[in-house]
Amino acid sequence: MDAVGDLTIQAMAELGFEATPLFSQALRTAVREVKPLFGTWEYGELYREAAANPDWLAISLITNAEREGDGATRLWSLAASTPDPHLAAEVRQHGIDESMHSLAYLRMLDFTFPGSVDDGFRAALENLSPKFGANDQPFAITDSPYSRSITVDDLIQMNIAEIRTRIHHLLQRPMLLAHCPERHRARVRPILDRLLRDETRHVGYTARLIELHAIDHRDEVEDLMIRRLRDFNEITDDELDHRIFD
Question: Are 221 and 210 in contact (CB under 8 A)?
């Protein structure tokens, strides 16, 4: 399970992110103390067992599309409410990425399980993505709990969520390609590549921002990393009871 931290840091380095020694130490400490469930061999086996069922895997793609779209909307409110323009710009880009990812999961549904949903339902699924683009400006959603300035706690939760999502991508890829008709695999692979690259980039930019905060608040960052990883373990444990992998 210590590999979760090491592999994450290695993936950031391979994508060109500068070293983040304070973040890296906090992550490794949290992983050693909490032992994330999503980094275990048993977790991977449960995922592969569930994903062997094509109906389950198709539904999971729709669930992923829904959650990415919801995440994009949350990030949009945070970006609109964060006064630091540089930080707001990074969160805004993250929101655009999540919006695109929602549609990417639907494209993989089309390629991997062609004809699995009727035309009317498939058209409705497009609404899962808010379809934010480069020319769109963030706005805060009225009464949203995310219509506020982003905090380091938010960044840490986002970081752990993206680490977990990276692991899901690594588990998901061979299962999707195994189910995908051979004629469509060449179209699914670049989508999977882009998703993994984006999730790694999201881990990297949040790590860099956490690193900056840790320069003067090292103990706070380490404590939050441990507490939030425990929270994710509780969420993961509950989701495993229902064979949910986000």
Answer: yes
Per DSSP, 135 falls in state T
What average pLDDT score do residues 209-217 get?
97
Q: What pLDDT is recorded for position 244?
A: 66
Measured CA to CA in angstroms, residue 69 lies from 32, 135, 232, 236 at distances of 32, 18, 20, 20
Long-range contacts of 39-45 (CB under 8 A, 24+ apart): 39/1, 39/3, 39/4, 39/167, 40/1, 43/236, 43/240, 44/171
pTM for this predicted structure: 0.95
CA distance linking residue 29 with residue 48, whole number of Å: 29
* Long-range contacts from 239-242, C-beta under 8 angstroms, 24+ separation: 240/37, 240/43, 240/46
Contact 225, 36 (CB under 8 A): no
Task: State the distance between the two ends of the chain, measured CA to CA, in whole angstroms.
Answer: 19
The label of the residue with tokens 């989701």 reads 239
Cα–Cα separations (whole angstroms), residue 4 to 153, 162, 241, 246? 20, 12, 22, 17
User: How far apart, in whole angstroms, are the C-alpha atoms of residue 175 and residue 55?
Assistant: 12
How many residues would you count in the chain?
246
Cα–Cα distance for residue pair 102/119, rounded to 1 Å = 18
Tell me how crowded residue 108 is: count the other CB atoms within 10 A of its CB. 24
* pLDDT tens readout for residues 23-51: 999 999 999 999 999 999 999 999 999 99
Specify whether the backbone of 40 is left (phi greater than 0), alpha (psi in -120 to 50) or beta. Answer: beta
